[in-house]
Predict the structure.
Amino acid sequence: MTTYEYGSPDAATVLLQPVDDHDLSMIEGEVAAIRELAGSDFRLIAVKVDSWNKDLSPWEAPAVFGDEEFGNGADGFLAMILKMAGEQGKTYYIGGYSLAGLFALWAAYQTDVFAGVAAASPSIWFPGFAEFMRENEIRCRAVYLSLGDREERTRNPVMATVGDRIRDAQALLNENGTECVLEWNKGNHFKQPDQRTAKAFAWLINRAKAEHL
């Protein structure tokens, strides 16, 4: 597993983010945006994903676009991430974009290590995930969800459910006592992923600061 670190190594707030090469090409801009929006010290650990559809998928599912099916490697990938989140006195958040956002949301159902989830334009259309959320209890205090306002306008019948799925997810989480916000961004799924992810992490950091005032 390859990791890339940004920010202050001694910061009490640690952000964990699965990334691919495209994310890494924009990560400096994301870090700068988090710093501008949150104005706080933080450490971001970007974890390179070797097989996106396998490592981030909680269970096997048929291909939704293209011909690459989804694997069930999330358990193993989470186990590796948790090895980075064991230091006492630190607050850990997990987040990501697209399928990494879905993985982050799923991860918070598996462990109470994470104080919050930053799920930017998550692939919440993933087959079976709505049922999973209804049947299980999340183990973090706060969740930030976002979506582009054009993402549900697609001819792909599975991905077109993303708008309804994310609205239902926000309602479910709030009903169950988790603080959850849903922000709508302009554009489709591919517009400004770095800025959307930065807003997600910054919301969690700012929420924690307000909680301690």
About this structure: The chain has a mean pLDDT of 94.
